[in-house]
Design a protein that fits this description.
There is one protein chain. By secondary structure, this protein is mainly alpha-helical. The protein is built from 9 helices and no strands. The protein has helices at residues 2-5, 9-41, 45-68, 72-82, 84-98, 111-136, 138-146, 148-184, 188-191.
Length: 192
């Protein structure tokens, strides 16, 4: 894909480097979210919120200083990736401290279990993909029709307006494990 977006060899190298760095960031974030999910499912919402707060505070600060000291976009990507490490380390520590019985290990799963997981994960992936496309599809249209200046204003206003929906989503994400546990206990009165 690099030749489609780049005009010279330096840009191709930068593009490829960014793909690698962003892929490593996604891998770190996946592990961190897995541990935070374990905390949330055990109703340790405060601890999971601390993980999100640490990431949301450290990441932009690290990215700002990387750009400020002149490291450029590649340095900013490295700073963003490295800023995920405190959250990962903290999440592993919190899970080991509060949920010592939880073990994450790679095991050979049964075919039926993998089929169930892949069915669920494919629906979750499609749902997330639809959400991303829904929330980001209008920016190229606005940019193409009205230009980059209007697209920038549109994106800022759109980002500000998404904070409300993110608050509702966070509330739902917090309540889901509670309702799941109540459902598993057949406590429908408490659910109501």
């Amino acid at each position: 894909l690099a030749p489609l977006f780049c005009t010279n060899a330096r840009e191709v190298w930068l593009f490829r480097s960014m793909i690698v760095i962003c892929s490593l960031s996604a891998a770190i974030l996946m592990w961190s979210r897995m541990f935070a999910g374990a905390l949330t499912s055990a109703l340790y919402f405060q601890r999971a919120a601390i993980l999100d707060l640490v990431t949301n505070l450290v990441r932009p600060i690290a990215m700002f200083f990387a750009v400020r000291i002149g490291l450029g976009v590649k340095g900013m990507a490295w700073a963003a990736m490295m800023s995920l490490l405190p959250s990962l380390i903290l999440s592993v520590w919190l899970v080991r401290r509060y949920l010592p019985f939880v073990q994450f290990r790679i095991i050979r799963a049964q075919r039926e279990e993998l089929a169930k997981l892949s069915t669920y994960s494919s629906f979750a992936f499609l749902s997330r993909l639809a959400d991303v496309l829904r929330s980001r599809s209008e920016l190229p249209v606005v940019g193409g029709l009205f230009g980059p200046i209007i697209a920038t204003h549109y994106q800022v206003a759109n980002k500000i307006s998404t904070y409300g929906s993110q608050g509702v989503t966070s509330l739902i994400d917090t309540l889901q494990p509670v309702f799941s546990q109540l459902d598993a206990q057949d406590d429908y009165v408490a659910i109501q």
